[in-house]
């Protein structure tokens, strides 16, 4: 696998860990095992907003998708769908934040709306990541050339730690999430 595809895959794993943790917390609330921690939810949504939406997706659009679009007409419909999903990412995050705010204000009566928003967001992200890895990656490996990979690798190597952000600016946020989330999601009190 090419360096940049390995980095994208690692970034997907980082996002998947956060999404899995979010789902486990919501499931724990639904089953009455844990109480909601609205501050933790806000931090998790902030991480999802800052790292994938602001760092990861723009690089895919500007480098991987742009180069692949030129080399592989077959990939264009998938690229257009994925780029459209990237464009609505901010609105999807705002909807998740609004659902969390409604839950916090309404108490248990607002939980179902938050739970539905979380499930919808996570399911869409899984479909999105799977399309990239199972549809785009093979075409990129087949059709992109050495000069394409050099440019793409340079862009993605600028953020070689998907847990912390390009300049380490999200490392503290990720650490806070891990330290306050209850087990098995994090290291916090259960």
TrEMBL record:
PANTHER family from the UniProt entry: BLL2471 PROTEIN-RELATED (PTHR39966), HEMERYTHRIN-LIKE DOMAIN-CONTAINING PROTEIN (PTHR39966:SF1)
Domain Hemerythrin-like: 5-140
Origin species: Zoogloea ramigera
Database matches in InterPro entries: Hemerythrin-like
Protein name, per record: Hemerythrin
Gene Ontology cellular component terms for the protein in this record: plasma membrane
One Pfam entry name: Hemerythrin
């Amino acid at each position: 696998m090419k360096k940049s595809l390995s980095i994208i895959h690692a970034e997907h794993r980082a996002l998947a860990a956060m999404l899995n943790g979010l789902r486990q917390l919501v499931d724990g609330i639904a089953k009455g095992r844990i109480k909601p921690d609205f501050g933790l939810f806000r931090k998790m949504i902030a991480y999802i907003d800052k790292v994938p939406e602001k760092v990861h997706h723009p690089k895919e659009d500007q480098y991987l998708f742009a180069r692949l679009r030129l080399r592989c007409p077959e990939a264009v419909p998938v690229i257009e769908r994925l780029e459209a999903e990237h464009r609505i990412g901010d609105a999807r995050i705002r909807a998740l934040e609004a659902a969390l705010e409604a839950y916090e204000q309404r108490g248990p009566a607002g939980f179902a709306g938050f739970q539905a928003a979380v499930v919808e967001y996570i399911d869409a992200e899984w479909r999105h990541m799977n399309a990239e890895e199972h549809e785009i990656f093979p075409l990129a490996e087949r059709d992109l050339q050495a000069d394409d990979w050099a440019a793409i690798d340079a862009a993605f190597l600028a953020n070689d730690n998907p847990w912390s952000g390009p300049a380490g600016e999200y490392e503290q946020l990720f650490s806070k999430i891990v330290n306050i989330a209850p087990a098995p999601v994090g290291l916090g009190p259960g």
